[in-house]
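User: Predict the full complex structure for these chains.
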Amino acid sequence: MSLLDSLTEALRVLPGVGPKSAQRMVYHLLQRNREGAARLSAALASALADIRHCGRCNNFTEAEICERCLNLARDASQLCVVEMPSDLAVMESTHAYRGLYYVLMGRISPLDGIGPRELKLDKLIARATDGTVQEVILATNFTNEGEATAHYVGEMLRTRGLKVSRIARGVPVGGELEHTDLGTVAQAFVERRGW
Amino acid sequence: MSLLDSLTEALRVLPGVGPKSAQRMVYHLLQRNREGAARLSAALASALADIRHCGRCNNFTEAEICERCLNLARDASQLCVVEMPSDLAVMESTHAYRGLYYVLMGRISPLDGIGPRELKLDKLIARATDGTVQEVILATNFTNEGEATAHYVGEMLRTRGLKVSRIARGVPVGGELEHTDLGTVAQAFVERRGW
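Assistant: Here is the predicted structure of the two-chain assembly.
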């Protein structure tokens, strides 16, 4: 296989990139932006080498434990469970929450072959039952997958004696946190209910 | 800037990738396809190091002169000028043409700041006036930019005493070769007219 074909095929690992757009990308990179292509190659290599999961919140980080988890000013008695780092970012932007997080890095989604095992929920259990966490707030999306995840995780943690709550269904049904206005997300947090 | 942010930004060199989809790509690569990400990083680096422009047809190649230009079975008296490698591939698929090619790697497009100078037409002139080429066939797209390019290149080569033709307007006006059925492209080639 030629280097050109290898690169075209390699670009198809990116979600949403088909054969035509991969080819367009190749021409664009080689013809118009070789510097950008070099930067991308290096950024991928560095990220793969040095980005890992925080030992506590499971978010991406370059350290063993991320800065947010080490921040003593945050309320360690509250643990907010979100699907993705982008959801964590939305919660943070509301300034309604001062506790800590756990990032699932996904959601239960049988169609994509992602069950409880693939989400490695053991790590969440260990984190939530460390003795300092008093309340786990489930902030997964209100999609079918997000709800299923909340039900499963909630059940799992409640049987271990933890107080579990769910952010209020202020977020529109079928909607995703990332695309919701901050006020709605903040209210949903304040109105969380027992789960 | 964190490695995560660097990678997100680096992915935006890809055409059609905005901030949201760059972020989705980062999560996907780091969480679900690290092997693919490593392959992509390596493929980019190899392509940048070893892919260059053929000294004769200007197409991408790993050699000094590409295989097609070295193929003695092809008719060296005909030179077909196309915009992009994908257009060359379409011409080849029609099996209607047995001559050689010149790939402009673009088109005259004032809005994108691409004029005759940026297309490095000197290389085309040198190629077309090497003494063996008898006819130059313009097979740029029938978009405004493609037509402008054909007019400019045609004029330029005709004043140097070359016979210049244009593939027939069988390709729908405003259409692009890449998205046209092979029969239409083949007929357009057969019905090329003096230019």
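Chain B touches chain A through 46 residues (CB under 8 Å).
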